[in-house]
Every structure is written in C-alpha cells, then in structure tokens.
Amino acid sequence: MFVLFVLISSAWAGDQGDPEQPYDGGTYQMVGCLKAKTAQWDKRMNVAYQKALKDAADDKQREQLRTAQRLWIQYRDANCLYYNLGEGTIARLDACAA
Fold first, then answer.
1. Does pTM surpass 0.70?
2. What's the rounded Cα separation, in Å, for the pair 67 and 46?
3. The pLDDT value given to residue 22
4. What is the H or E stretch that residue 6 is in?
5. Rounded distance, CA 96 to CA 98, Å?
6. Helix and strand element counts for the chain (H, E)
C-alpha cells in the first residue's frame, strides 16, 4: 500500500507544473471539468496500481494489495453517495463529481 501511495504522490508532484483550466460556467460545466480531471487521475492511479502489483514481492502481497484497493473503492463509493444526498446543485460537486 505504501508503494502505491509513493507512486501516486510522485505522479501528483509531477503534475504541479501543469496549468489548471478554470472552471468557467455553471454547475454543469464544473461537473464536466471535474469528471475530465477525475478520468485523468483514474488513468494515472491505474498505471500506479498495475506497477505496484507487478512489483509486489509475492502472491500474498499482491492479494493484500487487491484487498486493500477493493476496500478503498467501497469506501470511496459510499462516501460519494453520502455527499450526493446533499441538497442543491452543488451536491453533485460535493459528491465526487459523479
């Protein structure tokens, strides 16, 4: 798990020089921008995850990584659902731009 964190941190640090696109417009446009950014990060996290699986010492460590990631995904989805139950159009943004 630590390896995955380090890989993601390195990827994030490398992205700091990229200019951010402004979120111009209303909620609909903001949700679209966040979805695009989320898709970019999802791809980067998947690359880091696959590398961590490949670099794992043995099958036991790979299985533990898979278990940890599945549990994290369950948490993420439940957390996004919780915030999606909020009121107003901003709830879409609070809910992980889902």
1. no
2. 15
3. 59
4. helix 2-14
5. 5
6. 4, 0
